[in-house]
Amino acid sequence: MAEPVRGNLAGPPRYPSVPVGPDQLQALVDHTSAVIYMRDLDGRYMVVNREYERLFHLRREEIVGLTDHDLFPAEIADEFRANDLLAASAGAPLHVEEVAPGNDGPHTYITVKFPLLDAAGKPYAVCGISTDITARKRAEEQVRQLNAELEQRVRDRTAELEASARELDAFAYSVSHDLRAPLRSMHGFSEVLLADYAGTLDDQGREYLQRIQANVTRMGRLIDDLLRLSRVTRTGLNRERVDIGAQAAEIIDELRGAEPGRCLQAVIADDLVTTGDPHLIRLALENLLANAWKFTGKREQGTIGVGAVRQSGNQVFFVRDNGAGFDMAYAGKLFSPFQRLHPTSEFEGTGIGLAIVQRILSRHGGRIWAESEPGKGATFFFTLTSDDPEWTDGP
Amino acid sequence: MDRRAVNNKPILLVEDNPDDVTFTLRAFRQNNIGNEVVVASDGEQALQVLLPSSAARAFQPALVLLDIKLPKIDGLDVLRRIRADPRTESLPVVVLTTSNEETDIVGAYRLGANSFVRKPVAFSDFLNVAKMLGMYWLVLNQPAPEWASGG
C-alpha cells in the first residue's frame, strides 16, 4: 500500500527556499512598464529602473545624486518634490497624478509614493512607482470633446429647428391673414356685378361670374386646409388615454346629424383604447370617417367599420368602408397633400385630409396604410406607436 | 319679449382694406342697418377717434368692428388700449378679421374682445354675418349705461 501523498492535501508543492538577492529585485523592477525610482529626503536620486532610463534618455549611473530640479523644468520638479515630502510626512502610501514631459508632449502618470523608514521609524527615502495613463487620459479627453461637439451639434440643430418652426408660424400667420382677403374681393365684386349689373349681363356672363365665385370659394377652402395641415405640425403633442371607439361614435353621430337622410350602418369594436393626443387623434378620425362617409355616399347601404387587429404584437387600428374604393396602383399618392384619386365632380374635396391624418400619426411615431379595390371599399390601417418591426423606412 | 329700441348710435369700422370697407357698407345697406358707419383705416386713427387726448367724454359708438392686422397699431393693441381706458372699457368690440389662427382668437379674448368673427370668403356668407351682427349687437344686446363710460 502506498503512503498517502501529504503534500497534495496540504496545498501546493513547496519549492526550496532561495534567498532573493539584489540582482533578482533589480531584474524585477527593470522588467515592468511602470517607472520606478527612489530619492532621499533631499530629493537626490538613489536608484531608478530601466523604464526610467528609457523614458528620460539617461543612464542610472548619471542620475544618482541628481535631483529633479537638475532634470526637469522647475515647475514640474517642484511638484515632484512636494509630493515626495508629502509621502514622507504622511508615513503611508500617497496616490497622486503627476505630469512629466515625454517624447510626444506631456504624459500623465498615476503615481504611488511611499516612504522608507529607518530602524527608528524615521523616513530616509521616498520610493515612487509611476504608471503612464496618458493613452487613457487622451481617450477620455477625446470622448469629452466628442460629447461637447455632439452637444453643440444638438444645440445648433435645435436652434435651426426652432428657427424654421418660427418661420413656419410666421408664414402660416401671414397666409391666414393676407391670402384670403383678395379672395373676398374677387367673390364680393363678382356678387356686385351679378346684383347691380344683371341687366347688362347675359346668361353666359352671369355663368362666368358664378364660375369665378365657385373657384374663389374652392381656393378659400384650399387655403384653410393648408393652414389646418400646418397647424398639425405646429401644435404640441400631449399623450393621454384616448378612447378611439367613443371618438368614432361621436364623429359618426355628427356626420349623421349633418346629413340625416343617409342610410348608413356603423360597426365600432369594443375596447379601442390607446394613448395619444386626444385632439390630434380626433382630427385624424374625423378625416378618416368623413372620407368613409363621403365615399359610401353612392351606396344604397353604406357600411363603416372601426376596429383593431394585432399585427406582430402591435395594436393596428382600422377604418373600413364599402364605398367607391380606389386602385392600389395609386396608393402611394394617397397621403401626399393635394393628391386626389377621384374627380371633384364625383367626390368633393381638396386632397388634404389624408395628408393631415398621416402627419398626425407620424407625429405619434405611427404610420398609416391602405388596402382597397375600385368599387369594393377601402380599409385604412394605422398605428400610433413606432415599435412596429416591419417598419424600417419612413420619416 | 319686450320690444327694444334699435341702438342707432354710429358703428366704428376699423378696417384698412378699402374693398372690405365697401363690402361691409354694402352688407349693412342690404340688411337695412341704417346706422352711420365711421371708418378708421388704421389703428392710430381708431384710437384718435375713440380716445381723443383732449376730451373726457369721447365718441361712443354702438359697436366697434375691429380688424386685427392693421397698419401702425395692430388690432389687438387697439383693443388693449380700449379696455385700459375708463371711457371705452365697456364698449362692445367685435373682432372681425380674416384669420382663424388660435393665437389671434385667444389673444383677442384675453384682451377683452366681446366676440371673434371670421370674415367668410363668399359674399353671401358675409351678408349673413353682417345681418346677425346687426341683429345681435344693435337690437338684442343691452349695452352698458352711459354713466358707466365717462371716466
Overall pLDDT metric of chain A:
87
Q: Specify the number of helices of chain B.
A: 5
Q: Would you identify the CATH architecture of chain B?
A: 3-Layer(aba) Sandwich
End-to-end separation of chain A in angstroms reads: 83 Å
Q: How are helices and strands ordered from N to C of chain A?
A: HHEEHHHHEEEHHEHEEHEEHEE
Oligomer: heterodimer
Major interchain interface with per-chain residue totals = A-B, 24 and 22 residues
- Count of folded domains of chain B: 1
Low-confidence stretches of chain B: none
Overall structural class of chain B, as computed from helix and strand content, comes to alpha/beta
Judging from the principal axes of the Cα atoms, what is the shape of chain A?
A: elongated
CATH superfamily of the largest domain in chain A: Histidine kinase-like ATPase, C-terminal domain
For this structure, the CATH topology of the largest domain in chain A is: Heat Shock Protein 90
Describe the secondary structure blueprint for this structure.
The complex is a heterodimer of chains A (395) and B (151).
Chain A: H1 6-10, H2 22-30, E1 35-40, E2 45-48, H3 50-56, H4 60-63, H5 68-71, H6 74-90, E3 94-102, E4 105-117, E5 123-132, H7 134-196, H8 203-234, E6 240-243, H9 244-258, E7 264-268, E8 273-276, H10 278-295, E9 302-311, E10 314-321, H11 353-363, E11 368-372, E12 378-382
Parallel strand pairs in A: 7-9
Antiparallel strand pairs in A: 1-2, 1-5, 3-4, 4-5, 6-8, 9-10, 10-12, 11-12
Helix pairs in contact in A: 7-8, 8-11, 9-10, 10-11
Chain B: E1 11-14, H1 18-30, E2 37-40, H2 43-50, E3 63-66, H3 75-84, E4 93-97, H4 102-110, E5 115-118, H5 123-140
Parallel strand pairs in B: 1-2, 1-3, 3-4, 4-5
Helix pairs in contact in B: 1-5, 2-3
